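#struct-pred
JK: can someone run the complex with (5S)-5-amino-3-OXO-hexanoic acid? inputs below
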Amino acid sequence: MSKRIFTAALTGAIHTPSMSPYLPITPKQLIDEAIAVYEAGGAVAHLHVRDPETGLPNADQDIFREIATEVRKHCDIILCTTTGGRLGEPVENRVRVVSSLKPELATLNAGSLNFALFHVANKFKEWKHDWEKEYLENTEDFIFPNTFKTLRQFLEIFNKTETKPEFEIYDVGMINNLAFAIEAGYTKKPVYLQFVMGILGGIPASPENLVFLVETARKAIGDFEFSVCVAGKTQFSICTQSLIMGGHARVGLEDNLYLDKGILAKSSAEQVTKIIRIARELGIEPASPQEARKILGLKGIDKVNF
Ligand code: KMH
Ligand code: ZN
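RT: done, structure tokens with the ligand placed:
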């Protein structure tokens, strides 16, 4: 039986509170979501934090710690903390969560891109908070900075804390960046890649492009574990393709607010339940957090600092 890792990205920094009443904002909501994802069969919860009053994504270390500590009391789900943070968060703030919590797994964005969400702003008429419209519109001119220097400096910290990087690959050239980082000795194989498809500014989400990404990475890197996440409505179909290709899958409200056409997901756990139902039809079972730790070669929950 082939076991795969199902990750849920709980809240992210892309969607804003006006887009869905179900987007988790407060520490309590994020804690409940992580536990619900575990109960639905998810092995990993990808975590961003937000200001509990305004919903603005931030990098508040106390909130990260509160959530991680509380989730750990209830279950052994792997927490994959973001080092992407809010769009526009200074680079040093983004990586602080790795130094302080020493998580088993954290994202590491493998290249820079014009991370664009401005085209989404005009789909909404009413905003709950002042910041939302401008936050989205400003991305017309926003470069999400992940230079070679950032890559090197972040990896020095990851190596110290024995945190496994989940390399976020938004476009094919970023595979090259990662191959360079391995060659230069910044990080060691086997690496774990998250192909992020469908962000404006990155690679479009299509079956052909996923094949292209995986094949390019095989040539440049050799062996690796990979997962796929998709912004928007092809989330479930491309995640299914990833499973068929031997990969893992990430769902969650960070990437897609819907469960089906026109139906908002009430939680990331609902999306986890759906993708696991599809997986089982294909003879694929979800890996438990302990099995996921083995697959990814993680240091173990006893070595985190929370
Ligand atoms: N917040 C976005 C800029 C990550 O978590 O590292 C990208 C992101 C990736 O969410
Ligand atoms: Zn994220």
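RT: quick notes.
The mean pLDDT is 97.
The radius of gyration is 18 Å.
JK: thanks, will look after standup
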